[in-house]
Amino acid sequence: MSASTPGSAPVLLAQAPDGVPTITSGDDLAALLTPVLAALTWPDGSTGLAEGDVVVVASKIVAKAEGRLVAARDDAERDQVIAGETVRVVAERARPDGTTLRIVENRQGLVMAAAGVDTSDVPAGTALLLPEDPDDSARRLRRGLNARTGVRPGVLITDTVGRPWRRGVVDLAIGAAGVQLLADLRGRADAYGRELTSTVVAVADEIAAAAELVKGKVSGRPVAVVRGMGHAVTREDGDGAASLIRPPAEDLFRHGG
User: Entry's InterPro entries (predicted)?
Assistant: First the structure.
């Protein structure tokens, strides 16, 4: 069932279990998710988590557990919240309804609309900030799952972003523990023997996007398990998803319009 099993066609499986409870401030996320993940049933008849699995968790429930809900009773207060999370404005544009869309770099170093501040699926008059340190959140969740299940899965914390030049949004990894983030193919030969000189695959982001296909935005399934990427799961937690952020010297799109 591993994508790297010799002599077999690669197979990738993803499941988003039902039954994740409502998460509130102070909840032990690992404790709440353990029975939900244990109830998973796989096509080969196995159940629960296995070594090599990747647990993919929406940042929203991580942020709720970490008490990142703040007051945002009107547009002006929401704008103040966004400004407080903003390090740098990349681009802004007026909407037909009179509000302004702002693409900014936030405190986590991510470039996002509205600094990643979310007002969906939260009580009226509030807004949800991203986890303060998503990589630390991923490491703590990994340790908690390992302590309760005996399995050391990879863990990704994900959020939704738009992309320059492309319509639609995708999920990407904003926090990671125990997952190979990139696959550097430079120096390898393609099918015609030509050397690859620039191909570096965003493995963690592709796992995050695959998981979102089964989690969905409105299904009430904020967690998925991806199986078949065991070759990308590492014993050590690794550098974390913050290392994926392109440094300014490499950023061709640093200034928007």
Answer: F420-0_g-glutamyl_ligase, F420-0_gamma-glut_ligase-dom
Mean model confidence pLDDT for the chain: 93
139 falls within a domain: yes
Number of folded domains that form the chain: 2
- Domain membership flag for residue 251: no
Give the pLDDT of residue 151. 97
DSSP string, 64-131: HHTT-EEE--SHHHHHHHHHHHEEEEEEEEE-TTS-EEEEEEETTS-EEEGGG-B-SSS-TTEEEPPP
Take residue 81 and report the two structure tokens written for it. 């919240």
119 and 205 fall within a common domain? no
The angle subtended at Cα 100 by Cα 95 and Cα 103, nearest 5°, is 110
> For the domain that residue 119 is a member of, what is the CATH number?
3.90.1660.10
- Please enumerate in sequence order all residues whose Cβ is within 8 A of that of 166, keeping only pairs 6 or more positions apart, or say none: none
Residues 118 and 136 in one domain: no
Q: Are 31 and 105 in a shared domain? A: no
- pLDDT band of 8, cuts 50, 70, 90: confident
For the chain, how long is the longest CA-to-CA vector? Answer: 60
Give per-residue pLDDT as tens, 214-256.
Answer: 998 778 899 999 999 999 999 999 999 999 999 888 877 776 6
Domain span at residue 78 reads 69-129
Contact partners, residue 225, CB within 8 Å, separation at least 6: 14, 15, 17, 37, 40, 49, 53, 54, 55, 56, 153
pLDDT over 70, % of the chain:
96
